[in-house]
Amino acid sequence: MPITSRPTLATMLLLAACSGAESKRVADSTAAAAAAAAAPAPEPAAPVAPAGAPDLATVTFAPSLKVDLAASTKLPSGLYIRDITVGKGATVKAGQIIKTHYWGYFTDGNLFETSEGASPIEFPIGVKAVVDGWDEGIIGMKVGGKRQLIIPAALGYGQAGRAPKIGPNTNLVFTVQLLGITK
What we know:
By secondary structure, the chain is of the alpha+beta class.
């Protein structure tokens, strides 16, 4: 039930029972509580790069990755995206289940993981089933497309990393091929 600035019966009875100064204090605190309840919730803070994580603009990427930050779109979170191939199919929306192939690289060009040669992976997008960089970077892709995600550590595995392959504060580069939307 929403709190309104109109006093309830209980508040009016309490005010009537209190002295003048006490009535004002109770009324002021009731009004403050109502104003706080009516105020919009603060926006969640954008992820902040963990201490020790290099800024992507200062990172040297292996030439084999073909990372071009100037040709990429930098999102407010610090994620960079670049469409290698724009798909011609349906556009991905949060909550859908998608099917992808992917290639994950360290900034030095070493491949740490891929689905190539195996079954594509399927997962819901935009619901924290994968790292934040994927959730944010895949939404808006079209089926048949291929996109490069340059993910700052804060949107990847952060300070914890993902042992044994991915150390703390590691920036990552993924190429994601969107094969389909299954739901």
